[in-house]
Amino acid sequence: MLIFLPPSFKMDMHSKARYVILALLVLIPSFVNLWVPIYNRDSPELFGLPFFYWFQTFWLVACTGFYFAYAKLVEKKP
Amino acid sequence: MIGSDVVIVFVSLFIVFIGLGFYGKYWRRGDLNHVHEWSLAGRKLGTTLVFFLIGADLYTAYSFVAIPSGVFAKGSLYFFAIPYVMLTFAVALVTMPKFWTLSREKGYITASDFVKDKFNSRTLAIMIAITGIVAELPYIALQIVGMQSVLTVMLAGYTNSQMVQEISLLIAFVILAAFTYTSGLRGATLTAIFKDVLVWVTVIVVIIAVPISIGGFGNAFKAANSSYVTLPENLVPAYATLILGSALALYLYPHAINGVLSAQSAQKLRNSTALLPLYGIGLAVLALMGILVYGVPDAMKFLSGFPESSRGILVVPSLILYSLPGWFSGVALLGIFVGGLVPAAIMAMAQANLLTRNIIKEIKPNLSDKSEIKITKVSSTVFKFVALGFVFSVPATYAISLQLLGGILIVQILPAVLFGLYTKSLRKMPLIIGLLVGIISGILMVETANSFGPLTSSLLKTMFGPIYIAVISLGINLAISFGGSAIQKKIDSRKQVVD
């Protein structure tokens, strides 16, 4: 179907999807960080560390993944 | 009393530190008679160096002193520093490359430069510069408190320890002032890397060695208060708003903007910002020391020799001294000591830029390049000693509280600086009023929350639970800035119709 559309419209679809992905890469980690009840629990423990503490520390690594994907996607100009 | 091994390692590493600071002048040589060469290292720093430099802004005494001290005294609430760090980099990732690009095009060195150009208002630009300088002072003071805590632990038990401590601090500051004067941001960046290596080694050793020696984290949590395990339900609003408010504030501090602008390109800035949450792992370990210390009886016994209010700031140095071998304590303690010194240098430099470019130059516009750099260098030295004098004259615990106030002040420049990057709908008058009302309401709420006594809390009890005051006063400020601009626009367009 897409081939029947004018080329500029295809570009738009592509860049729209790109914007949505970029936004999600920043918003998902931020939502998790701000929605405290998600991680405010004691079990399961890891090396005796309550969930509250180890999850947030682990999430730092996950965030780096999200942010790095964002940086690389911005760099790759459409 | 500590052994001579600690002192020997500490002093010899400090000599290496001094050497690096002065060597900075020759590193990636540039003409240091230009402001952007001296204070932005010629805008030539790549991904790794920006990572270290901005990381140095993060690994300050705030992480060594304020956060572990809070976790030690109040428990899980102060772990908000970890999600705060993650969120602040999301904010920076989106906004700062845009700010960098604009600054490179138009030659801005401070946020105030941008505001003056964008809103064509000297008044607003000067107000933003003053807010930056004032908010930065208690932050520098906090760095000195961190350095003091290391010296206190090292000198405990010796006679004249108070005097020796003050003299040591003074010497450290004279050296710091000397090498920032000659080397500028280059010296700070080189010493930041040195400091980070020491801090990372310390953090890794502590997180492995201490839990093993006390039989797991579980034992430390058992020895601490049971409310430390998770966040008490009633503190959830406080936790979330502390994350939000602090995350919005960090990149508005003059020293953070300074770090951003020293990057070589917008993409390099983006890459290093994306990687910066990894730094937070070290911060998490430092925060956990506030709980781990409960599992180390020797350290707890040592701490009990101090008044309750000042125990918190000594947590990290005493945990290190009582759980690691002597020579290694020397390495770790020096890491913390220079961990206050390096950020203090960067902060004073950023303050000096604001004072010269955005205040003095506004009053005396025909300042030559030569006198501009001279005034910047001299005032950066003066700011350091003002902060030092401040620490000598007020109790340490009070300095930490004032830093909370600093965050509430600096976040008020957000509408002009961050929203100013994106929207054309803001006007200068509502921004000026919003900034003033934000600052005044923030100070009033802090005073109310502490019943007009000594500042210990930055949370206001509301119907939704305790909320970080910075968020409330920023909300008021935003409402005035946007609401006022909309009204002004309507009035303007009506005038046009009449004309």
Task: Set down the secondary structure blueprint.
The complex is a heterodimer of chains A (78) and B (499).
Chain A: H1 7-34, H2 51-75
Chain B: H1 4-23, H2 35-40, H3 47-58, H4 61-74, H5 81-106, H6 111-119, H7 122-155, H8 161-183, H9 185-213, H10 217-223, H11 236-250, H12 254-261, H13 266-275, H14 279-292, H15 297-303, H16 308-311, H17 315-323, H18 326-363, H19 369-393, H20 396-410, H21 414-422, H22 428-449, E1 459-462, E2 465-468, H23 469-498
Antiparallel strand pairs in B: 1-2
Helix pairs in contact in B: 1-8, 1-9, 1-18, 3-9, 3-12, 3-13, 4-7, 4-14, 5-11, 5-13, 5-14, 6-7, 7-8, 7-18, 7-19, 7-20, 8-9, 8-18, 8-19, 9-14, 9-18, 12-18, 15-17, 18-19, 22-23
Task: Give the structure's gist in a few sentences.
The complex is a heterodimer of chains A (78) and B (499). Chain A has 78 residues and is mostly helical.
Kindly, what is the distance between the CA atoms of the first and last residues of chain A, rounded to a whole number of angstroms?
21 Å
Portion of residues in beta strands of chain B equals under 5%
Q: Termini distance of chain B?
A: 82 Å
Radius of gyration of chain B: 23 Å
Determine the mean pLDDT of chain A: 83
The radius of gyration computed from the alpha-carbon positions of chain A, rounded to a whole number of angstroms, is: 19 Å
- With strands numbered from the N-terminus, the spatial order across the biggest sheet of chain B is 1-2
Oligomeric description of these chains:
heterodimer
The secondary-structure class of chain A comes to mainly alpha
Largest sheet geometry of chain B: 2 strands, antiparallel
